[in-house]
Amino acid sequence: MPVAVVQPVTTLPSRPRRKPQVKPSRDLQRLLAQISDAQATYSTSAFAQNIEKQLLFVTKSSATPITRIVSLGLGSLSKPEKGQTRRIKQLAVLLKIRETLQKQFKGGVVEIYAQDPTFTRPDEALLSNFDIRILRTASGASLGEAANVINESALIYSPFLTLEAYEKLLVESEQPVHYLVGDDFNALLEKWPKYSAERTQVQKVTKAALGRYRRKAISGSGFWEEADGAFPMALYAAQNKVKEKAKM
């Protein structure tokens, strides 16, 4: 009786599966284009030169490099409503600040965290394109998860933050803020009428916290327009941090 010959089975190596390329939606493509345009406008503006000048002073005067940016109150970028252009520009400034700091940090990585209670899933998808990590908060008056990532190497970026959150951040927080790019409190005092609740809040933050900071107003033409509804900004640096390097 003939014996059947069993041929050895050759197993071919399986090819690694390629991850499908997800094409950005039209809305995301549109937003990315708007952000790119805003970055280009910012780069050639006097406003950008002023911010970079102030950041250069801080980074050269402090022994502690800024390796982290915590953005608070950026707002929803995907909602086509009033203020969207301003919020897109705020993001463009944030990205350029990181770029400036990374140059001063000699190519080191500066990570960004962003937190806003109005963030939507499209917002988070958009921000992930720029390697921005999302933090959670229940409301605009709370520090939320940001309280856990603020450290001595963090710069807070808050161009449109609530007064309640500023109180939590600058007066009540156990972790002191060393660097802040946000609302100019000198201008905030002029914004609110005397004896108003808002002016009282501004005065509280000013008296309780801002005396220990070096303040530099950020100004310059070529970027913000009246229609943006932007508010004057300033850079605050803890005086002990600015003088730290000079003493060494």
UniProtKB/TrEMBL annotation:
Domain of life: Eukaryota
UniProt domain SRR1-like: residue ranges: 54-203
InterPro entries from the UniProt entry: SRR1-like
Region span, Disordered: 6-26
Pfam family, one: SRR1
PANTHER family: SRR1 DOMAIN-CONTAINING PROTEIN (PTHR42080), SRR1-LIKE DOMAIN-CONTAINING PROTEIN (PTHR42080:SF1)
Protein's UniProt name: SRR1-like domain-containing protein
